[in-house]
Amino acid sequence: MPLHSGHSTSLPDDVVRHMHVLRLQAGDKAILFNGEGGQFEAELLQLDKRSATVQVGRFDAREVEPPYRVVLAQGIAGGDKMDWLLEKAVELGVAGVIPLMTARSVVRLTDERAARRHAHWQALVRAACEQCGRNRLPDVAPLTDVMTWLESCAAPPRDNALRLLLSPRAEQPFATLPGTAPAAPVIVMIGPEGGLSATEEAAAISHGFMPLGLGPRVLRTETAGIAVLAALAARWGGW
């Protein structure tokens, strides 16, 4: 949504609902962002059940992103796990999410259902940004078959990305990662419930992914990515 200082503008439905949740009233102050960085001060002029108008004020170039870029390539999880994972990943600073359909994925989505789920995930990410104060919107890619996605990944990576494959079979521990954040992007690949198949792991390794272990305990799929994002924040200055 375009925002311009000194102009009044109507807000989209999801933002109107969020303002009702916050119990805002006409005359209250708010912070608005368009997902591209920075934020605007605003005053709520009018709030009805389904509409709201604000006066857009001063722009603040405030940045809250980590000093590194991590993309989570996640085998989709069943039930509410994927929603929970996305919400927490946004709070922990993930720059993007690539949902992957894998051989052991519990959830199977047709093209129509996959499109609806993708729209749902995008809305969830926007809501999570509003809740945690992020003003850059993480990208959520459309659901993709894992082997198709891997074939699209150049080997070796042209962008010098650090590619990490979380696997309970990996011998290299997390502690061997560099102590400072790389300038290049980081892609963390995680399987669904039951993990990636041996064929999928072999394909990932052939495309430049480094197998990485998280210790002797096997973490659930919705735990592994969050644990890594939190650990990287502590290690690379993301807090």
Written overview of the protein:
With 239 residues, this protein is α/β, with parallel strands linked by helices. The protein has two domains: 54 residues, Beta Barrel (Ribosomal Protein L25, Chain P), CATH 2.40.240; 167 residues, Alpha/beta knot (3-Layer(aba) Sandwich). Helices cover 31% and strands 23% of the residues. It is built from six helices and eleven strands. Strands 5, 6, 7, 8, 9, 10 and 11 form a seven-stranded parallel beta sheet that branches. The longest helix has 22 residues.
Helix and strand layout, with pairings?
Elements: E1 8-10, H1 13-21, E2 29-32, E3 39-47, E4 52-60, E5 70-75, H2 81-91, E6 96-101, H3 111-132, E7 139-140, E8 144-145, H4 146-152, E9 162-166, E10 186-190, H5 198-206, E11 210-212, H6 221-236
Parallel strand pairs: 5-6, 5-10, 6-7, 6-8, 9-10, 9-11
Antiparallel strand pairs: 1-4, 2-3, 3-4
Helix pairs in contact: 2-3, 2-6
Number of separate helices? 6
CATH fold call of the largest domain: Alpha/beta knot
Task: Return the domain count.
Answer: 2
- What is the highest CATH level, the class of the largest domain? Alpha Beta
Would you identify the regions where 5 or more consecutive residues have pLDDT less than 50? Answer: none
Strand content: 15-25%
Q: What distance separates the N and C termini?
A: 29 Å
State the share of residues found in helices, binned by percent.
Answer: 25-40%
CATH architecture descriptor of the largest domain: 3-Layer(aba) Sandwich
Biggest sheet features = 7 strands, parallel
Enzyme class: transferase
Keywords: Cytoplasm, Methyltransferase, rRNA processing, S-adenosyl-L-methionine, Transferase
GO cellular component, one term: cytoplasm
Family: Belongs to the RNA methyltransferase RsmE family.
